[in-house]
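Dear colleague,

Following up on yesterday's call, I've attached the two folding results inline so they're easy to grep. Please treat them as preliminary; we haven't cross-checked anything against experimental data yet. The first protein's sequence and structure tokens come first.
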Amino acid sequence: CTQDEDCFDGDSCTEDTCNAGQCNNTLKNDCFTLSAPVCVGTCWIPRGLMFDISTMSNNILLHGLSFRMYSSSGDVSSNVTVYTAPGAYGDIYNDPDSWKEIHSTQIVTKAWSYVSLDFKGVAINSKSTQALYVSSSTSDSFIASKESENPVASDANLNIHTPARYVFGPFGDGTSEPNGESISWEGNITYSLQASCSQDSDCSDENSCTVDRCDLSSGTCHNSMLSNCCGNDVCEVNEEECNADCGPWNLDAPLCNTYGNGKCYTPKGMMFDVTATVGISMLGISIIHNKGTNINVDFYTVQGSFDDLYLDPLSWDFLGSWSTVSLDQTRWLSIPIRQTEIQAGSTQSFYIVTSSSVTSSENDGGIFCGGLPADVVADEQIEIRSPARVFPNSEPFSDPSYDRYSFQGGIKYRATAVSEPTPSPSDMSTMSPTLNPTLIRSLRPSISAQPSTGISSHPSSQPSRDPSSQPSSRPSISTVPSSMENFDPSSQPSSQPSLSDQPSSIPSSSSESSISTGPSSDPSGHPSVSDLPTSQPPSQPSTHPSTIIRTSDAPSASSMPTKKNSEVPTTQSPFSAPIPVKWFMDWDILSCRQHCNGNLPCGGKPELVELYD
């Protein structure tokens, strides 16, 4: 782009600017655009066009229209005027006094280019119909489409209806169906919402499948579609009997003729593709069959397009046959086939081949096709694609074959019930917990960023992998001892002494106030160390002399004589004072040792070492 005008996208709800050679189309705030389908193939070019729009739960303010114009000279130069009237145009199309002019401007542009008209807002109340009329002052014409489905376009607030009225001049004579064809508005309508409610009851759209709510902050209505409701345009589980959501439906291709899309042909075979935008089940195929005798029609299918498989019979599945003894004239035949599933976004190819007895008529027994690729044949769920490939011979998958033809007939199908959960969680969390618990437990435990507020009815089967981020307000109470020792001592003594077959690794902080009632069942791994003598004699004699010698108040009497002689004879009576103990410094170990025989702390005194008391 070199200027902002180069960036116009035909949408009055966007701000179109050119910046450093790049177009930016920025959506304006609080502005909506509803677009009617663009015509493909044959388009109508009326000088004037009347059509109706209708609102739903909200009041709207109409801001503008955008559309395309045509001129046989290539350049459009015309004065375009827009009129409006409340209600439908049907009774006032030739009554100028019923219409109000809302915009008029001179248009100079290229043929087939978009024209945008922005005008002062036109207020339209909720749940009402408004007629619009766009007129050209010259022979330069508007471009209109062929659409039979009503409405041709809709959103949550607005509908664009068909048929439109083809008008030859300002409020002059016209016809709503030129050449028997329904026509419709092709272009965009821009609008914004106006305050339209003060309570929920003001927002009723008379649809039992919506929740109608009034947003009091803006005064606008919101109609949210419910799930699992017959009439919400979604085929859901257990809704197979809901025809409004699940079908069946029929999609028929336009009939060939001797003009327009070309004359009709009657080959013996035809391949065509069907693409689904939602999951569907094909139930039947309609064809136009020429007269003949001993007629047999076979149906085949293959996943994907026929383009690379039309001569590969091993890739195709046989769907079934239909036969009759004779057809005395050309007939439309609706033939059921074996149900064929097509996934959303997928393409399935179908092949029809017919055979019949040879008669005098060259075209007897064939199936109809169009001579040129047809316009797009589609609804909101499937599309019959073009071109088709035709076969002049009755032998299946035989050359020669030709493309650039169009399918003639129809498709019968139904939607596949949606049974799978959504592939990802919703963008917004629910405002409150569900009123009732789920009927089926989840396969995995839920993960929460916050601790639970209540106590679980059962202990967990596994310890937690990570410690809690905050200490608990109260200690936990357990009837079973823990399998792991505490790193810190408890703040209160236990109610019962612990039982252990091993001595504790750390001495108790205070001595026992009472003597145990009986000896321990097993000897300790190490002797205990005490500054006080035991109150009872040991059951076995000690293997080493005591390291501390104390006087007794009375001589001890041994129940048995000693088994060994003393290593040193007694020099004094056992009732006299103890022999003084001498110490010396052992510089090899930097420690004091007793001058005595035996293990540490005894040791023989080295020479030249002084003894100390």
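Below is the second protein, in the same order (sequence, then structure):
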Amino acid sequence: MAALLGDILSGVGQSKLKKVNLVLSSDLGGGSSATIASRRGFSLESGDPEEILKYQRYILDFNIERWLDRLGDETFVTTTLNFSPDVARELVVRYEELKERKETARACLPDRDMILYGMLEGHDLGRPRPPRRLNTLNEHNEHNEHNVHTIQPAHCPLTNSTNQPAQLSAVHPPPPPPSPDEGGSYPGLHELCTGLEGVIGDQGAFVKTSSRSAKDFADLGTLKHEYDSCVARLLNGQVGGGSADGRGGGDGGGDENGEGSGDEAAEVGQQQACENSALIAMSYASMSLLNTAKSSPFGSASINVINTLCQSERIWHDMQLAHAAQGAEAEVEAEAEAGSEGGSAGEGAATASSWEESLVVRSWVNIEPDMEFRCFVAGGKMTAISQYRHLIHFPRLCANWSEGEGANLMRVLVDAFESGIKAKLEGCFSNDDYILDLAIELAPSQTIANILSSETLSSDVVQKVWVVEANPFFETTDGCLFSWAKDLDQILGLDEATPLEGRLTTAPKKGASSLIYEDWKRLMEGEDLTIPGPDWNAKHRAGAGGGGGG
């Protein structure tokens, strides 16, 4: 639970914001509590196990099974594959197994930041294991005079800067576990993989669990290929006044804090804008990898999905939470409560039917990265909207956001909520408090070629508003451009002067890439993390001066 609480984000710092207030006819002030804890009926501040269990069960109320049928065609066509607590445990064990292997490799290698991703990322599930071991004893190696273990992956000639084999003298990495083909280590995952094969179509799909997706993991080799392609398309596709530096025809004067002037300010602005464009390209690349239609060098689409789930820390967290709140742990606690109240054994306890976790296969719809939004709903009223990818400045979005600005996308979102989504979700969540992730599907003409454009668009460019996800109305859900601490009154709808506020990032943000996954940041900076070469250490040290980390 400490790890879960550590994921709470405190806001976005000094980003430039575009704030738009939209007055609705409905009154938002009635009866809202001053604190989130009082609205939820629990608090995590004390660390009380009972309060934590209440939180865990509250989080599970937002699993897709709870709201999917209500929304109908407001959300994507979806197929679910139920899986048992045993399969959830296999996901946890597999994640921890692969994490240990990666950490062991870090300890073995001359530079602790270097990992042989192709060897260690777990793409062997469902396939015969290649002939590779982490600790091969090589008594005849001329560089191994002290009879230590040397790392010798068959397909990756790793050497250090002196062209000597990387050696390990004190740490003895464990041998890889037997592959599923050899020992049947993960029967539940194999069964789930087989079930996926009959569901995933040729047109592609987006696969997640009941709660979240595995978007925190991507095979770095495939991601780099997609990123390089997206950079090329971005540079070759500016239209309507957009520019390759990601400013969308902006003024370019001074940095985001208003500092600097002349040539110095222009240089700073250019650096931030180029970083912004790189982040846009990375958004396209990472989103494309979520589509099962994207070919993978590691096997079928179903195998690739399972391998990805097994290496996602988000999924690992969620499977542990599911076990704690509705699995064996919850059953034991319920039995204890029943016993203390004089009931019979098992009375009131969680049963097998209370377990509700699925693999969720959703039809793929092309959504542009600037067209996803986090929307706060308090007491059934929409109170705040933030762009979802809040680290990035999107010129096309800013040019078409509010009244008098092209497609007026903020009004599009509000109208979709008020005209259908709101009524369908009424009564679904406690106090009608929830956070929606909404996506606007644009006409096929809107692509990476014009995301940097500041051209205003006509309203007919909007095809549909989709509900992507429903999230807990709690501080553990990222507020994007809203802070749970500083903007609580706005989130709760207590400010009658601004019943609904929308926020965008209106300029490239200084150092934004330092807040993304470290490996993705390195990939953007040109490092090849898939097969490190002999001079990797020297290059890394030479380019590391002053580097902050994400």
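For the second protein, one point worth flagging: The chain is about 35% helix and 10% strand.

Best wishes,
A.L.
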